[in-house]
Backbone:
């Protein structure tokens, strides 16, 4: 039998219905309810920001941070769950207003690195080794405000500092081209892999690909995944969808482009991604109009669509497609793909 996929979610995927243009419309969801939802929907992993695992960690000594993280691990264990990764949340703190690692303020840069080291401590206490680096505000709105040469060196310093915090720590860089900044310093997988290759320990630096982030860069997510998979560096995925070059929508996987979703699943299948044990995450949000009682349907739907597309990938008429390719009849190949997706 084929290896089963492992699925993960983050607390932010069960949100209150706020968007960039309006306040929350649903009540807050407790972390216990997040764990309960994960179990009910068949998710095995929980994605963490550092302060999801240890609230108010900015004001806690290291020993207390470790103790609270261990208590969180017990809560995971009690529910049959594991931590997939920990990401330092730098973009909401006042020190991160101009970016963390690439801030023009030396004090802010030092803070960002120290907090990232604490995130490593949290991860180790949770029993996971993966640190996700999302360079949210590492960029500019006014390009002349920062030197991109200097910024590249500063990003590399941060990566090396995280690697130095523990010999077990691995980093998955999650690139995004824009939002919340106008221009990001690490906009694509190619940029992320190039940074990792220059790090103190390239073997411990990989990437996390989010479908919408690739689309916002004008790229095909399946091509980005293939590029990372060829290098053995795809350590997690956040699957969702995006209706064009708008704000980061985090819609249900396959909702805007079902064929694009199929191509993403197919490339994961072709690479044997499930065999690596890496997780499939769905970075999706419930629609603002959704009532609280059914505000987890977006997660259930995304998982169901993914599994249906796994079936489609595994039943794809490869021989017929190969004949089309051999005869360079790409019109016939196109029809083969479309008819397969439309078949029952």
Residues:
């Amino acid at each position: 039998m084929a290896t089963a996929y492992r699925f993960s979610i983050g607390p932010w995927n069960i949100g209150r219905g706020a968007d960039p243009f309006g306040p929350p419309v649903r009540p807050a969801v407790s972390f216990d309810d997040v764990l309960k939802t994960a179990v009910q929907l068949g998710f095995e992993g929980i994605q963490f920001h550092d302060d999801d695992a240890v609230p108010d960690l900015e004001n806690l000594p290291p020993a207390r941070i470790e103790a609270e993280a261990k208590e969180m691990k017990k809560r995971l264990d009690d529910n049959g769950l594991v931590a997939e990764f920990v990401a330092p949340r730098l973009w909401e703190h006042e020190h991160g207003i101009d970016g963390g690692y690439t801030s023009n303020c030396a004090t802010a840069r030092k803070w960002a690195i120290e907090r990232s080291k604490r995130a490593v401590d949290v991860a180790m206490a949770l029993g996971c080794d993966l640190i996700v680096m999302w360079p949210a505000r590492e960029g500019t709105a006014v390009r002349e405000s920062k030197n991109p040469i200097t910024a590249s060196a500063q990003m590399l310093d941060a990566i090396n500092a995280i690697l130095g915090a523990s010999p077990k720590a691995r980093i998955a860089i999650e690139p995004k081209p824009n939002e919340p900044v106008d221009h990001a310093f690490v906009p694509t997988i190619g940029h992320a892999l190039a940074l990792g290759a220059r790090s103190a320990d390239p073997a411990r630096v990989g990437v996390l690909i989010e479908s919408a982030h690739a689309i916002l860069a004008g790229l095909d997510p399946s091509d980005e995944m293939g590029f990372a998979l060829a290098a053995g560096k795809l350590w997690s995925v956040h699957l969702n969808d995006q209706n064009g070059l708008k704000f980061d929508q985090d819609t249900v996987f396959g909702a805007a482009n079902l064929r694009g979703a199929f191509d993403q699943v197919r490339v994961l299948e072709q690479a044997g991604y499930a065999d690596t044990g890496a997780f499939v995450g769905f970075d999706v949000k419930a629609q603002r109009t959704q009532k609280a009682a059914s505000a987890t349907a977006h997660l259930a739907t995304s998982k169901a669509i993914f599994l249906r597309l796994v079936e489609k990938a595994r039943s794809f008429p490869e021989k017929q497609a190969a004949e089309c390719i051999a005869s360079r009849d790409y019109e016939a190949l196109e029809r083969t793909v479309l008819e397969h997706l439309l078949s029952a």
